[in-house]
Design goal:
The chain is of the alpha+beta class. It folds into two domains: 161 residues, Roll (Thiol Ester Dehydrase, Chain A), CATH 3.10.129.10; 112 residues, Hotdog Thioesterase (Thiol Ester Dehydrase, Chain A). It contains seven helices and twelve strands.
Length: 279
Amino acid sequence: MKFDTPPALGPAYLRALVDRRPARMPDNAHAPRLEARLAPHAPEASRLDAYSKVCGFGTSDEAPITYPHILAGGIQMAMLSDRRFPVRLAGLVHVSNRIRQRRALRPDEAPAIHCWLEGSETTPAGEVFTLHTALAVADETFWEEETTFIARSSSGRGRRRSSQEQPTWHREAEWSVPADTGRRYASVSGDYNPIHLWRLTGKLFGFPGAIAHGMWSLARCAAQLSAGGNCTLEARFVRPLVLPATAVFERSDNAESGAYRLASPDGKTVYLSGSLDTF
């Protein structure tokens, strides 16, 4: 697939609502190699400013580390909506994200975007797919992302729980996350997935209400971390953040680990956990 301008996300979500592909990975199915490219395209300054505000970033002459994900959203959706992909969009769960940035995107640059997906990994919970994204200006690839999804298999038994020792956490910030957070993020990202918009539409898809976009939660954490420059930002999406909510941002007492998490005020529910490594 090749695009001269970013494809709109809205029509893709409308098609997803009537998609007849299976929600779970069929037996003996596999994911073919899918690839998409977007010609060099400069971000809109007004959209970048609005995104920074919604996600808690301050003003800067560089784009936030999570912003290129928004630029790639249209072609990522085109790939996952392709009839050759074995499951429908509603059957996918976004489980983790890894961003490797060598330098920040500058607002006056027009990066080319390349996305690809090839193969999958069978796990006890289902089939895992990794969508790769790279941004480049001229011959310089300066931003890369791995977005991991899982399609539950008919025999899946849930996620495998980690047995690693948990760190001691230090509370750094507490945020009030209002009910309209999903709608505000959708207005700057184009991601109008109904599970994020209204309590009713969230409940229609099996959630207690509207849930925050995982990438909003990651962006809000990245802003708190002041993540930028040459670094790697990782996140695992653990539980949905049901809106409205109060969430606390915490860092590991072991500063060298770079570990952080977003949790409920009592610490019993973890919404997101990850790490930041700077170079």
